[in-house]
Amino acid sequence: MGNQMQVSGDWVEYSSYLASVLVFAAFFMKAIVPLRLVAMASNIAFVAYAAGAGILPILILHAALLPLNIIRISQHISLVRRVREASENEPDIAKLLPLMTRRKFTEGDIIFRQGEEADEMYYLCQGKVEFPEVGAVVSAGEIFGEIALFLQDNRRTASAVCAGPCEVFSLSEKKVQQLVVTDPSFGLFLSKLIAARLQQNNQSLLRQSMPVAVEN
Predict the structure, then answer these.
(1) Which of 4, 30, 162, 167 has the most CB atoms at less than 10 Å from its CB?
(2) DSSP assignment letter at 126
């Protein structure tokens, strides 16, 4: 009987040491997943120690922290998976259409002018839109007007002119910012789109500034 009590006491004491070591190790973890895994292990060790020692507050605390750590590590893994998928695939714009406002334009209509303050991003459903200042054109299925939303002065870098009848969906700046924060795939998609658009605009301006050779 005495040996059993001694073994039980040793087991409780060892679990307390293990829990303390795991908590100490967690402070040295930089990566989220290993940190959460070590934290979960410490929760289990503390639950075992508190149950054996009859310390109810510690038992309740770590019994509550364990599922919380499980939820947080699941959320992190899901976020990493979504970001990885975003780097390989473009988001489904059709899912954004219910959040957007539908508008129709005729040929020659100006959707926005260069220098105007930007408060919306656009998705071109039908038609073509030209940007005369940079010599660029977007066709149906493309997003435009996103660059100015992320500039410090929020000013349009070029005018958007309808080259024919157009059907356009607009998304407010506030909703764009919300989507960037909540949906990493959308944020990464916009980052790639803005980088590609700036590169395209720079190349168009460079071509326009080059002297034209005249044949004699």
Answers:
(1) 162
(2) E
Per-residue pLDDT tens over the stretch 166-207: 999 998 888 888 777 777 667 777 777 777 766 766 666 566
Which residues of the chain does CATH 2.60.120.10 include?
93-209
CB 192 within 8 A of CB 116: no
Residue count of the chain, please give it: 216
CA atoms within 13 A on the CB side of 119: 3
Are 137 and 129 in contact by the 8 Å Cβ rule? The answer is yes
CA–CA–CA angle 170, 174, 178 (5° rounding): 105
Distance CA(205)–CA(187), nearest Å, equals 27
Closest by CA position to 39, among listed 17, 1, 67: 67
CB 191 within 8 A of CB 140: no
Dump pLDDT digits (tens) for 56-101.
988 999 999 999 999 988 888 876 776 566 555 555 676 777 888 9
Q: Distance between CA 31 and CA 51 in Å, rounded?
A: 30
Residue 168's nearest CA partner among 126, 197, 131 is 126
Look up the pTM and report it.
Answer: 0.52
- The CATH code of domain 93-209 reads 2.60.120.10
